[in-house]
């Protein structure tokens, strides 16, 4: 299953990438300033969205907290 991470390079983004690498999931990471800009990010996820934003498969999960909660509920972590 592929994981997509929208990252601004913060420590939280790095942690998400490391977690999914440890879980041996395929990661596609989009970087702020390289793959998208802040305007596109806010347009896609809303003005209150924080980094990282994560999608698993075709489903947008949300930020780091929401992603960790989902992984716990599913027994992945």
Features:
alpha+beta; four-stranded mixed β-sheet; globular; 3 helices; 77 residues
Strand order of the largest sheet: 2-1-3-4
Tally of separate helices:
3
Q: What's the total number of strands?
A: 4
Mean pLDDT over the full residue set: 97
Radius of gyration: 12 Å
Largest sheet: number of strands, sense, barrel closure: 4 strands, mixed
Low-confidence stretches are none
Secondary-structure-based class equals alpha+beta
- Succession of helices and strands: EHEHEEH
- The shape, in one word, is globular
Instruction: Tell me the β content.
Output: 25-35%
Give the termini distance in whole angstroms. 16 Å
The share of residues in helices is 25-40%
Describe this structure in words.
The chain is α+β, with helices and mostly antiparallel strands and 77 residues long. It is built from three helices and four strands; from the N terminus they run E-H-E-H-E-E-H. It has helices at 11-22, 38-45, 64-73, and strands at residues 2-7, 26-31, 53-56, 59-62. The chain has a four-stranded mixed beta sheet, with helices on one face. A hairpin with a 2-residue loop joins strand 3 and strand 4 (59-62). The longest helix is centred in the N-terminal third of the chain and has 12 residues, at 11-22. The mean pLDDT is 97.
